[in-house]
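Cross-check.
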Amino acid sequence: MRDEQNTALVRVSDLKSILDGDAEALIRVRENPGNALAVLSEVHRRDGMPVAHQSRVLEIVVGEVSDVGEARRILAENTMPDFVEEMHAHRGDLPSVLDMVATAEGLLSALLVDLNHYMIGDPRLFSFYIRGWAQKVCQREDWEALLEREIFGFTLRDHLLIACYWDSFAVGGARDEYEADVTDDMFTELNLDPEESRDRLQEMLDNDLVPKFDPEDLAEFQQAVADRRRLIEDERQQAALDDAKELDI
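Predicted model, tokenized:
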């Protein structure tokens, strides 16, 4: 059986070397980003490198592709969606080239995995995280479409508006008193129209349309994350079986 890694233009050793700033290895990666991602995907499948290193390598490789559309094409052709989502989620609240390059589905899947660590019943913690996340991705060309996607029965837009509300309370202010001071800057930094956002936020508050995150919601959310992880693992196993069939193993 031919060893793809040994005959590839980009070698596994190159992926390790670019982490140390090897200029020659970086040139090979820059000239052959698709090949580099294919090799990285195989390394991931074989658990041949710590996940933290894989994530850094992916950042470097994708970062060498200046055009967003081209980067998405190369990712789609040389990696599995679950791999990209896992690497993106591993970045946590750190900036990532995938913030702009990942598909909408991949972006939201990575967000849901991260939110699973923050959903402990306190809306302030949720709002703090989701606002920080939105600040990283709000300049995407599909941002308006993303804002209409639903999480917990509320659109992402509504979640962000309520997040601005929670985060604007005076320190020590009681939540049952309207002490919030939501500034226009809080909306514009999320690429939201201030006037429209303020009107919608007031409508939500007047009609008590506020995410509660009760225990049932949390359990449902955690189940959804678990189901997603099972689906990813099933897809990974099926891909391995398909590879084995192609190689007549």
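Residues 68 and 120 are 35 Å apart (CA to CA). The first helix runs from residue 4 to 7. Passed to J.P. for a second look.
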